[in-house]
Amino acid sequence: MKFVSRGLYTVIILFIGWLGNFVLDTQFVVGIVTGWLIKKGYDSIANQILNLL
């Protein structure tokens, strides 16, 4: 039973880390894309994307 609880705990910790990484990577990509759009002059589109966050 000890190994089952440790295995379940490990899986939960890995899943939480994966979700956190997904959120941070998504925000990073959105920041790059909106920065590029603002640089190219598409301010309204970039602001709409940022408002989604």
Q: What does the secondary structure layout of this molecule look like, with pairings?
A:
Elements: H1 2-40, H2 43-52
Could you list some keywords that capture this structure?
53 residues; mainly alpha; rod-shaped
Overview of the molecule:
The protein has 53 residues and is mainly α. It has a domain of 37 residues. Helices cover 92% and strands 0% of the residues. It contains two helices and no strands. The longest helix is centred in the middle third of the chain and has 39 residues. The protein starts with a helix and ends with a helix. 0% of the residues are buried. The mean pLDDT is 89.
Number of strands: 0
Report how far apart the termini are.
Answer: 42 Å
Percentage of residues in DSSP E strands: under 5%
Radius of gyration: 18 Å
Tally of alpha and pi helices: 2
Mean residue pLDDT: 89
Helix content: over 70%
Largest beta-sheet characterization? none
Q: Structural class given helices, strands, pairing?
A: mainly alpha
Q: In terms of per-residue confidence, which ranges show pLDDT below 50 for 5 or more consecutive residues?
A: none
State the shape.
rod-shaped
The helix-strand sequence is: HH
